[in-house]
């Protein structure tokens, strides 16, 4: 497996929950070009089981 630290992230687009907690939107990596960005996810947040 190759190291990914220090390498540029591939361009991507994904659905996101907006800050109001009710609506969803679309985020793209290019929206944050030239800015610091920390990505995290917790896949169980929207599991309705």
What does this structure look like?
This protein has 49 residues and is mainly β. The protein has a domain at 9-34. The chain has no helices and two strands. It has strands at residues 13-17, 24-28. It has a two-stranded antiparallel ribbon with strand order 1-2. β1 (13-17) and β2 (24-28) form a beta hairpin. 0% of the residues are buried.
Secondary structure: elements and pairs:
Layout: E1 13-17, E2 24-28
Antiparallel strand pairs: 1-2
Protein name: Peroxiredoxin
GO molecular function: antioxidant activity; oxidoreductase activity
Pfam family, one: AhpC-TSA
Largest sheet: 2 strands, antiparallel
Radius of gyration: 14 Å
Structural classification: mainly beta
Going across the major beta sheet, what is the strand order? Answer: 1-2
Topology as H/E string?
EE
How large is the count of helical segments? 0
Low-confidence stretches: none
The CA-CA distance between the termini, in Å, is: 34 Å
Q: Tell me the overall shape.
A: extended
Quick rundown:
It comes from Gottschalkia purinilytica (Clostridium purinilyticum). The chain has no helices and two strands. The chain has 49 residues and is mainly beta.
């Amino acid at each position: 497996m190759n190291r990914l630290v220090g390498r540029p992230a591939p361009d991507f687009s994904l659905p996101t929950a907006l800050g109001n907690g009710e609506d969803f939107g679309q985020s793209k990596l290019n929206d944050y070009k030239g800015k610091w960005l920390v990505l995290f996810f917790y896949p169980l947040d929207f599991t309705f089981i």
